[in-house]
Amino acid sequence: MDGPTGNEGRIEIFHDGEWGTVCDDSFSTELGHVFCRMAGYTGAIRYHHSARYGRGDGPIWIDEPSCIGSEMNVMNCTWTNKWGETDCEHHEDVSVECSPERIPGWDMLKLKNAQAVLENDDFKLRLKPLFRHRRNSISEKGFITAGFLEHFSKRDNKWYRVCADGWSHANSRVACGQLGFSSFNEFDYGGYTRGERLRRSQFGLKDVTCDGSENNLQWCEKIELGQNHRDCTSHQPVVLQCKPGRHYTDRITLTDQHVDNMFTRSRQPEGLRVRLKSGGNLGSGRVEVMINSEWGTVCHNGWSVLSANVVCRQLGFGTAKHAFSNSEFGNGHGPVFGPMSTTELDINISAYQLRMRESCNHGHDVSVICNTPKIEEKAELNIRLVNGRHMREGRVEVQMNRKWGAICSDDFSMANAIVLCRQLGFGHPHQFIQDLAYWAAADDAEDRAILTGLKCKGDEYHIEECEISSSERCGKKSKTPFVGIVCNERSADLIVDTVLLEQSLHINRRSTGQLQCAAEENCLSDTAYLPEYHQTQYWDPYRERMLLRFSTRVWNRGTADFLPKSARTNWDWHACHGHYHSMERFIDYDLMHLNRTKVAQGHKASFCLEDNDCEGEASRRYDCDNVGGGNQGISMGCADTYLYTLDCQWIDITDVPPGEYLLRLHVNPEMNVSETDYYNNIAVCNIIYENSAGQLRLYAFNCHIPDDYEGRYITQFYTERAFVGRRTGYARGETRT
């Protein structure tokens, strides 16, 4: 408060419904780090004593806490005094100057629902199995499914059992839903508790009464016990056996003779499919439904926690932890459906109607965070981040054979980083650092790589599911072959505008004399160049080329801006275009036979990223033509458009015979930049190319974004399929198998 900038001022903290200050007694820079992280900054630069920015009002809440500096919240520090216990006065209010750098993913949106988050997260439940039943109570996925239901008392800072007096099936449904399970099973209570001295149980709740529609036991009628923790008439505690949803049990596989790896997806009811997009963690994201073979979003009209409960349970999770309106996880793509029915346990397709009115647009897309089961730590291959500026970044350390050590950075990929952030529950990878020269090892870890050859596909939930070649030697190019990552709750999500693509496809004859820039950038096939030189700078200006031209518009439908991986100092200047290009491979253009063998490809060397079209409240922030290359990227809610009139917006099909083909566009093909979903980066069109008596005809139809099955198949297939042809004329930096 009252500082000259947003990251500097008097520290104030909200407690017990009132804002108060912090005393400067025994304050330190380490304690400043903690308060700055609570405010969303990476750390503190310095602190000031004696009310540098004026005296505050109200109570002085905190006096002389002891922090080591790595904590994310002052509540995790050691306290000498209780809240409000102090001998200070307001002339001793402390101030701090925080680093202006924000923690990735932290923004003011988090403050919108802060109170709701606190209310839901404060009422905690868990299942506590008896020791002799513990092995049978933990599923193969690593979470506890059965045991005594316990409630955490904030008053005593202790777990207590729940009294079974008046307990009902509706109560069990709500409790299991809050714990991340879609339902519950009845089982032998007497057999489970036989030999247990139940009369010695201490209880924290009794007389719980739910109607089954609640998302949290907090909203049910109940009595919270104070001092008398034996006040349970039956002396029987609640014992539950929760049932995991279809996300964890009814797994189906997609296999194909061309696909070596296996993909999994939750089974969906007939007639309707539901998915969550752009969420940072499992069970969170924008709600999308498929109706009549088309994916769309859901309008916020009629949206409630009851509706969100339906979605979460259908997807195989528990109840909804939070239900959001107004595009909390970014604007969607395609049609908007609504309203949502809440009367069925599974969504009924008849409850949907396509909304075309202005009151339902992508600025009103609904989203949800579902309750998911808490995964117990596995015995091997636990991971952690250490010595970063905040909890979502740092050196990656893995535990093997009860020892902690680093992960080798040789051939480390974005797919590996995706799995690491997902396993940690930190969302998406913002970036990963190879050959890490900072972020030292933890005190209890070995300063060497103990895990080598990690190869993930990107859809795993735990690195134990990835391929590991432990025999590989580490440190081929560096003396510090370690990995660091920065995770982020929010990330971009690119998707191709298939309508513009299909409308713009056409054939164009041009002489090479009109394509000088394109020839210099290798955007023509081999026969455009003089064969006696075998060098791309010697092109024949009198040859005619047949070009399959098209426009591409790439929308960012994620929750963060899409930024190029390369630093500004590594951008390439293109004299023909008069501006810098920040990405060598942003989109691949390929023409293939129907059997997926490649017959021609585009050779667009590199790209300049900017905002050309924006929707809703989004505004243009990135422009290539500014001095020094501009500020390049694609803002959330905006699109980068390359019209067919631009150089290299084509595939040279001069040597391609007439026939039926597939056109494939693949955005961010090397996964160099983090996204929430890579399987929607592909657009596919059917092409019929005819040449009758010198008359060229092109028919383009069925341009679409493949669903997850087809997208995964296409991605894997084109990566592993052998490309038959000469390896000449590729743009710099491109590779082909």
What tags apply to this protein structure?
seven-stranded mixed sheet; mainly beta; 737 residues; SRCR; protein-lysine 6-oxidase; TPQ
Write the layout of secondary structure elements.
Layout lengths: L7 E3 L1 E4 L2 E5 L6 H10 L5 E5 L11 E3 L2 E2 L11 E2 L15 E4 L10 H4 L1 H9 L2 E4 L5 H4 L8 E8 L4 E5 L6 H10 L4 E3 L3 H5 L9 E7 L11 E4 L14 E5 L7 E6 L2 E8 L6 E6 L5 E8 L2 E5 L6 H10 L5 E5 L11 E3 L14 E3 L11 E4 L11 E6 L5 E8 L2 E5 L6 H11 L3 E6 L11 E7 L2 E2 L11 E2 L15 E5 L5 E3 L1 H7 L1 E6 L4 H5 L23 E6 L2 E5 L15 E3 L4 E3 L5 E6 L5 E4 L11 E2 L23 E5 L7 E3 L6 E9 L14 E11 L2 E10 L3 H13 L17
Parallel strand pairs: 3-5, 11-13, 20-22, 27-29
Antiparallel strand pairs: 1-8, 2-3, 4-8, 6-7, 9-10, 10-11, 10-15, 12-15, 13-14, 16-17, 18-19, 19-20, 19-24, 21-24, 22-23, 25-26, 26-27, 26-32, 28-32, 30-31, 33-36, 34-35, 35-43, 36-42, 37-38, 39-40, 39-44, 41-42, 44-45, 45-46
